[in-house]
């Protein structure tokens, strides 16, 4: 019993010390390169992006209360960092055109396959679960923006291979 007590006390000390090491928060208000600066974003799509995408794919995350507790904050920080590395809607207009095109295709694939939003996100954020109508609206918008890019730029600049 003494061994278990020592282990529990040790774990408690580690937990308490871990609270002092916090990741930086994703709280920038910089939207100078936001996707809306280059492409029209209908209000209906803005609403969907806000509720289901922006916490991990923008420069401003709305943190829940449990984000103050380690190791949860580290886990969330990693998710946000990874999400922003895939696509950041607040930095989108600063991407190369080929990257914009590719990221929109990736978004379409993720929504079609049900990969986004992540199940681990929607488990806690029930309002982020996309309805079929919301998926359809996102897919249409992603496709329209992607097609507008394709229409404005030569295929070589988009790394699009022409079918023979």
Structural overview:
The chain is mainly alpha-helical. It has one domain. The protein contains eight helices and no strands. The longest helix is centred in the C-terminal third of the chain and has 21 residues. The N and C termini lie far apart (74 Å). The model has no long low-confidence stretch (mean pLDDT 86).
Tags for this entry?
56% helix; mainly alpha; 164 residues; 8 helices; single chain
Backbone structural class: mainly alpha
Distance between the termini: 74 Å
Low-confidence stretches: none
Strand content: under 5%
Percent helix:
55-70%
How do the SSEs run, as a string of H and E? HHHHHHHH
The count of domains is: 1
Count the DSSP helices. Answer: 8
Q: Tell me the Rg in angstroms.
A: 20 Å
Arithmetic mean pLDDT: 86
Query: Could you give a short account of the major beta sheet?
Result: none
Oligomer: single chain
Q: Globular, elongated, flat, extended or rod-shaped: what is the shape?
A: elongated
Strand segment tally: 0
Architecture blueprint of SSEs:
Blueprint: H1 2-18, H2 43-52, H3 54-57, H4 72-86, H5 97-113, H6 119-122, H7 132-152, H8 155-158
Helix pairs in contact: 5-7
Give a summary of the structure in a few sentences:
The protein contains 8 helices and no strands. It has helices at 2-18, 43-52, 54-57, 72-86, 97-113, 119-122, 132-152, 155-158.
